[in-house]
């Protein structure tokens, strides 16, 4: 008998560093009551039903874990060190208590150093109740295995900052990306499903805008693509989706993609 391993990614948040709505903003998007226009900070959960791997732990980490009733995490992968991707790490404590173990956090050496600096008390104080983190260095050519979940790191550029994207079998998750070298593009060949940044419609120095994202998608030719890390400047989700190619859609918080 053959058992198929189904992997699922849950997009826990699909917004930018400010989230949507933005504090104090009364634009059409921020005033919208549509769930598709409400975005927590970007993060994702990989799961096969037994193993749970988190991608990024931003300021909405606690809310995202409660919303999706996540009871255990096996590891955390960090794309980069910006606050909207790491500042929720203090809230791993309930997972430490449940497992009795430190949380393995996989990151570029530069990012790991920044986590040590920003959460200095975690690594220097001997006080009961502090979160426990085990930092594991990875690079753009690392292959990881978590239970049935295989992850290949992909080097991408966040403006001039080298960060990580991830390929998980037929799916690639690339947030905060502006450019990808030809060498790293080879790692993305044949992806069927793609989650990629589209900040808004104007040019930006560190993120793809909508036009750049659509050109990137056209080059990779996945079966389906979803746009994430979306700003309130993008426009109402219903309006934007109406003008996108048939196989492309704005992602939304809580959406799930399942593949073998």
Describe the structure.
There is one protein chain. The protein is α/β, with parallel strands linked by helices. The chain has one domain (about 5-250): Metallo-beta-lactamase, Chain A. About 20% of the residues lie in helices and about 30% in strands. It is globular and about 55 Å long.
Report Rg: 18 Å
Structural class: alpha/beta
Strand content: 25-35%
What CATH first level would be assigned? Alpha Beta
Mean pLDDT: 96
**Uncertain runs with pLDDT below 50, 5 residues or more?**
none
The count of helical stretches stands at 9
CATH 2nd-level architecture: 4-Layer Sandwich
Write the CATH fold name.
Metallo-beta-lactamase, Chain A
Compact description:
This protein is α/β, with parallel strands linked by helices and 260 residues long. The protein contains 9 helices and 14 strands. The radius of gyration is 18 Å and the shape is globular.
What are its keywords?
single chain; 260 residues; alpha/beta; Metallo-beta-lactamase, Chain A; seven-stranded mixed beta sheet
């Amino acid at each position: 008998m053959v058992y198929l391993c189904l992997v699922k990614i849950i997009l826990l948040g699909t917004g930018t560093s400010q989230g949507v709505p933005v504090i104090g903003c009364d634009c059409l998007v921020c005033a919208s009551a549509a769930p598709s226009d409400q975005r927590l900070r970007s993060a994702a959960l990989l799961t096969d039903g037994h193993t749970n791997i988190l991608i990024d732990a931003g300021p909405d980490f606690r809310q995202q874990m409660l919303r999706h009733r996540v009871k255990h995490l096996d590891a955390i992968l960090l794309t980069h060190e910006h606050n909207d991707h790491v500042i929720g790490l203090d809230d791993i404590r309930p997972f430490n208590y449940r497992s009795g173990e430190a949380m393995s956090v996989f990151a570029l050496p530069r990012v790991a150093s920044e986590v040590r600096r920003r959460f200095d008390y975690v690594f220097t104080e001997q006080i009961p109740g502090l979160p426990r983190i085990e930092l594991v260095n990875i690079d753009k050519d690392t292959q990881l295995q978590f239970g049935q979940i295989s992850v290949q790191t992909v080097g991408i550029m966040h403006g001039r900052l080298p960060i990580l994207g991830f390929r998980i079998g037929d799916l690639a998750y690339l947030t905060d990306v502006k450019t990808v070298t030809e060498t790293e593009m080879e790692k993305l060949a044949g992806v069927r499903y793609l989650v990629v940044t589209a900040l808004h419609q104007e040019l930006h120095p560190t993120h793809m805008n909508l036009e750049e994202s659509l050109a990137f998608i056209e080059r990779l030719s996945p079966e389906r693509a979803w746009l994430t890390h979306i700003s309130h400047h993008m426009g109402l989700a219903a309006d934007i989706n109406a003008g996108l190619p048939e196989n492309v859609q704005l992602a939304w918080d809580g959406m799930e993609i399942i593949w073998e």
